[in-house]
Amino acid sequence: MAVVRPAESLLEQVAENALDDDYYVVRAGERYGQRAVATPAVGVVVAVLAAMLTVTAVQTQTDRPGSELERRTLVADVADRRDVLAARQEAVGALRQQVASLRGGSTAETSTDVAADTVLAGARSLRGTALVVTMAGSPDGSRAGRVTAQDVVAVVNGLWYAGAEAVSVGGQRLAETSAISSLDGAITVNFRRIEVPVRIVALGDGAVLRSRLQSNLAGRYLQERAEDAGISVGMAPSDDEVVPSAPEQRTTLRRAEPLPAADGPRGEGRP
Amino acid sequence: MIPVIGLVVGVGLGLFLQPDVPLWLQPYLPIAIVAALDAVVGALRALGERRFDDRVFVVSFISNVTIAGFMVFLGDQLGVGSQLSTGVVVVLGIRIFANAAAIRRRIFHA
């Protein structure tokens, strides 16, 4: 065996001693095998090898249609799912558009019912004759003389009672879910801070609203507040006032669903 | 002539009988074939170098197939079946290539 240099790595060793040493050993030593290729033992071994190869090849061949079918099914599945996804996305786009057009309220196909409802719900700005109530704290700046959220609530209730059709406080429209509250001593409407003096606009017949407000409970409350704490209240009918729309969050219902108008129970109230 | 007859008989047996390889034997058959191919290529090289010996061929064939199968079996038992199979295939592959290169050199002097 002609070894030029000793193999260094394992792989080199494997490559250099690729031929079984026994072939060389036989060559060097005495003969105990047969040189001839055509011996029965060789034939049997070749037959075994050929059989193994054929069997494996046949087996792989017969297995292939199964795996091929599986693969094709998977590919078809993927394509199907993609189609479904595309269709769903398209549907999402269409539905979004539909929702937007329904929300818009001003599109031609919106029914008059919806338009009227958005007006009532405070989602649209309104204009008309009005009563403007202005409330300011007492000039001496005393703690008791400040305008409180309670005062505003009293006036707003009085205005509704007097027949106001839409009310805004400090530019904030009162809608379905509006709240008047106090935060850190300041008045908030629709969770926005309101400046003093508070300007309350109530749409309706200004003169009628004023006389009704002055004569009802809220009017007497205001009179008391003016006398005791010195807050000043101004009431001025106006021919042209604008009440803005309420913020979107205040006119959007997420959970509540309307009942059909014919079936829904109707509350009783003062006309 | 006898090897050619053996080849024909083996292929014929495989084709006509088409035995289903039992499931437990399936992982070993490909490795056994690679090991057998190594023995065959080695025998061809020895043939070319005029040192072929049928006894060495038969023994190396049987031992190659047995040892390769046993290593895969052992690997399966140890949980490294695929890695050990890869190792066996790499080593046998190198041997096959080296022997084939030697044959090529002998025939083409290149």
Keywords:
heterodimer; A: 271 residues; alpha+beta; Alpha-Beta Plaits; 5-stranded antiparallel β-sheet; 3-stranded antiparallel β-sheet; 8 helices; 17% strand; elongated; B: 110 residues; mainly alpha; 4 helices; 82% helix; 0% strand
Overview of this structure, please?
The complex is a heterodimer of chains A (271) and B (110). With 271 residues, chain A is of the alpha+beta class. Chain A has 2 domains: 10-104; 115-251, Alpha-Beta Plaits. Chain A has 8 helices and 8 strands, in the order H-H-H-H-E-H-E-E-E-E-E-E-H-H-E-H. Chain A has helices at residues 10-16, 21-28, 40-104, 112-121, 149-162, 206-215, 217-228, 248-251, and strands at 126-136, 166-169, 172-173, 180-183, 186-189, 192-194, 198-203, 232-243. In chain A, strands 3-2-7-1-8 form a 5-stranded antiparallel beta sheet, covered by helices on one side. In chain A, strand 4 and strand 5 form a beta hairpin. Chain B has one domain (27-108). The mean pLDDT of chain B is 87. Chains A and B meet through helix 1, helix 2 and helix 3 of A and helix 1, helix 2, helix 3 and helix 4 of B. Chain B: It is found in: Cell membrane.
Helix-strand blueprint:
The complex is a heterodimer of chains A (271) and B (110).
Chain A: H1 10-16, H2 21-28, H3 40-104, H4 112-121, E1 126-136, H5 149-162, E2 166-169, E3 172-173, E4 180-183, E5 186-189, E6 192-194, E7 198-203, H6 206-215, H7 217-228, E8 232-243, H8 248-251
Helix pairs in contact in A: 5-6, 5-7, 6-7
Chain B: H1 2-17, H2 28-48, H3 54-78, H4 81-108
